[in-house]
Amino acid sequence: MGSCFRLRIVFRVVLIGVVMAWLVYVLGKNQWYVTTGVSALVLVGLLIELVKFLEKTNRDLAHFLSSLESDDPAVMPVNRPANRSFEELYEAMSRVASRMEVARTDREVQYRYLQTVINHVEIAMICFREDGRVELVNRAARNLFRLERIRRLGDIESRDPSMYRVIREIKPGKRELVRFMSHSGMTKLSVSAAAFNLQGRGYRLISLQDIGTELEAQELESWQKLIRVLTHEIMNSVTPVSSLSNALNDMLAGENGDLRPLNSLDPGEVEDLYEGLRAIEQRSRGLLSFVGSYKNLTRLPDPQFRDVSLNDLVAGTVHLMKPQSEKSGVCIRQKLSQEDPHVPADPDMMERVLINLLQNALDILEGQAGGEVVVSTGIDREKGHWIEVRDNGPGIPPEILDKIFIPFFTTKKQGSGIGLSLIRQIMQLHKGSVSVRSAQGEGAAFIIRF
Question: Global pTM?
Answer without folding.
Answer: 0.46
